[in-house]
Design brief:
This protein is of the alpha+beta class and about 240 residues long. Helices cover about 35% and strands about 10% of the residues.
Length: about 240
């Protein structure tokens, strides 16, 4: 496979905050209905902008037969993002008691989008997803071996083995082809329409701003284990999958 050119650039808050938002007003859709061939992780708030869900379907269709995207995170409320951010900040503050606030914020910003920045975090706009890959045997494909955790978070890390690189190239090709852009420091994070997408692609404006989930929204329920010999994607099983959450 020839090398794939990865869209991307550094995403400092100074750049993100300069991007104006021309909100389209595009509604959210429920991924349990809109993207039935994508497997949603337990606890996922399963909503994306309508265009982004259609792009995810195009990306799914371009994967090799038997492969499926998994989505661990789609929409987040601002409250969810804030809770994650400040819990991480306070853990770091307890460990680095000699650090000033500015250093603590910079360190936290490396891993979490700040909820109090002018640019809304990507997941709070309904334009961002965190993905993984499921193989024909219904098992999650490795993306990081022989490393662990954040060690190989950089999308084009030279620390990963050939299998992990191959799996990354599958999702990169499919998602770039569908119009997503990637956070180069997080192989799993892709978006369209938010401030980070605008910075990465050189677009002068973002088209999605902060959006709230629909009234009475629900999370994805924990699923039963997939049974060997039973294909969860087949049309006859889609209604059953939806009923699980």
């Amino acid at each position: 496979m020839p090398p794939i050119v990865l869209q991307g650039s550094p995403e400092p808050f100074a750049l993100l905050n300069r991007i104006p938002i021309a909100e389209t007003g595009e509604p959210l859709v429920d991924l349990r209905e809109a993207c039935p061939d994508t497997l949603l992780g337990a606890g996922c708030l399963p909503y994306l902008r309508r265009t982004v869900a259609a792009m995810l379907n195009r990306a799914q269709d371009s994967l090799p037969p038997g492969y499926r995207f998994t989505v661990s995170t789609a929409l987040r409320t601002l409250e969810m993002q804030s809770d994650m951010y400040w819990r991480a900040y306070n853990r770091l503050k307890a460990e680095k008691t000699h650090w000033p606030v500015s250093a603590l914020r910079r360190a936290t910003n490396k891993y979490y989008a700040a909820p109090d920045a002018k640019a809304p975090p990507g997941h709070t706009t309904g334009g961002a997803i965190d993905v993984g890959l499921l193989g024909p045997d219904y098992r999650n494909r490795d993306m990081v071996a022989p490393t662990k955790g954040w060690e190989a978070a950089y999308t084009w890390s030279d620390k990963i083995g050939p299998d992990a690189r191959h799996h990354r190239e599958l999702i990169i090709g499919a998602l770039l082809g569908a119009g997503f852009s990637n956070c180069r420091d997080e192989w799993w994070h892709w978006s369209y329409g938010d401030n980070a997408w605008a910075v990465r692609t050189g677009c002068p404006v973002a088209v999605y701003g902060l959006i709230a989930p629909p009234p009475g929204y629900t999370f994805v329920a924990r699923r039963r284990p997939v049974r060997v010999g039973w294909h969860p994607v087949g049309p006859a099983n889609r209604q059953r999958r939806r009923a699980w959450g």
